[in-house]
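Late entry, evening session. Most of the bench is empty. Finally got around to the prediction I had been postponing all week. Sequence below, unchanged from the version circulated by S.P.
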Amino acid sequence: MADAAKRASQTRVLRKIAGATTDAPKLDQLIHERARLGIVGALAANPVLTFQELRDLLGLTDGNLAVHARRLEDAGYVAVEKSFAGRVPRTEFRLTPTGRKALKDYLDRMEAVIRSARGSGRA
């Protein structure tokens, strides 16, 4: 019985640190993944990036970037434009207004978690 009470107490402390209450918004798991957060962050700082630029900037493989970019595109966070420069295919990525809002919401939530963990404000 003492173990159960101790675990419940620890859970309450961890939830408070993380700002996790039943009414607290959850982190966007689509953006929370490292590669996708990198893609969205890079596109927030640059109006357009090519496939090669994103791949090299983030240190991803072609396949890894393609899979993560597709997930973001399917969610409407990223717009993809495919064209040709001569005979060479060119893929460009842009952050959509939906993606920009999702990133802002994600960053706001992370800032609240950080403030809560530091004890310098409410989540």
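Two things to note before I forget:
Residues 2 and 8 are 10 Å apart (CA to CA).
The chain is about 60% helix and 15% strand.
Will write this up properly tomorrow.
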